[in-house]
């Protein structure tokens, strides 16, 4: 059993030694920064390869005392929504994202609370031969600012792609 786990760990580390590494902490920091800037209530990010293997993920809800882990019901929603779009659905270019060479699809849906919406964005990078799938979902009160999926979540996707390229 240990040999199998070491082999998997070695293969995964070999896949990301070409300068395209990103950790849970990187993704968590990006998400926290954007949530603060957007005045969003909570959010989650799932970064995976095209086979569905998780590379990094993060979740965060903003409280008066600072960032905290999301509640489990929100994470269940994030996991369910992350499987919603396939690559073929995500061929649209959005303003502000076209220079990043991604295929992306945004969505906005009313949350289970009054005046709250979930905005999400699924992105495949690079657009022509995708290696990564990035899913971002955020909850926003309509009075705090934009609550549409693309403008709300695009800064997270952009920063993750820049981190992958460094």
UniProtKB/TrEMBL annotation:
Top-rank taxon, per record: Bacteria
Name of the molecule in the record: Penicillin-binding protein transpeptidase domain-containing protein
Species the sequence originates in: Alistipes intestinihominis
